[in-house]
Design brief:
Blueprint: E1 6-14, E2 17-26, E3 45-54
Antiparallel strand pairs: 1-2, 2-3
Length: 71
């Protein structure tokens, strides 16, 4: 199956945590299991994923928060 979608990712440090977000959007709805006759109102399908990692500090107050790969 040919992949027809766009992806965007964001990283943000906010409220004592690291946030990672990934968004995927597909505008080719012919890939859905329902036909366009059954769901004529569907034009775009999307998915998002979010990971929040709380910030950690050692005894000296240094930031020791793990990155996304080691979390």
């Amino acid at each position: 199956m040919q992949r027809k979608y766009e992806e965007i990712s964001q990283t943000e440090r906010n409220r004592d945590r690291q946030e990672y977000r990934w968004y995927s959007v597909c505008t080719d709805c012919s890939l859905l299991t329902r036909t366009q006759e059954e769901w004529p109102f569907i034009k775009t399908a999307g998915m998002d994923r979010q990971v929040r990692i709380p910030m950690e500090r050692d005894a000296e107050g240094k930031d020791i928060t793990p990155d996304i790969n080691s979390f």
